[in-house]
Amino acid sequence: MKLYIKEKRFSWRNQLIVQDEQNELVYKIVDCKIKLYK
Predict the structure, then answer these.
(1) Looking at residue 31, what DSSP letter applies?
(2) Which residues contact 4 (CB under 8 A, 6 or more apart)?
(3) How far apart are CA 36 and CA 18, in angstroms?
(4) Interacting residues of 17 by C-beta distance below 8 A, sequence separation 6+
(5) Is-above-0.90 flag for pTM?
(6) DSSP character for 10?
(7) What value, to the nearest 5°, has the Cα angle with vertex 6 and ends 29 and 22?
(8) How far apart are CA 27 and CA 3, in angstroms?
(9) pLDDT at residue 18, as a whole number
(10) CA distance 23 to 12
(11) For 1-38, what is each residue's pLDDT tens digit?
């Protein structure tokens, strides 16, 4: 499974959204905390 960064937002809240090749959201990293979606 390949993972790639879908979106990166840096504001008052740093957010990095990572998804797999089927465009499913796998996890979101917010302020260095990883939230798993699977």
Answers:
(1) T
(2) 18, 19, 20, 21
(3) 10
(4) 5, 6, 7, 8, 9, 25, 28, 29
(5) no
(6) -
(7) 110
(8) 10
(9) 74
(10) 26
(11) 677 666 666 555 666 777 777 767 666 666 666 666 65
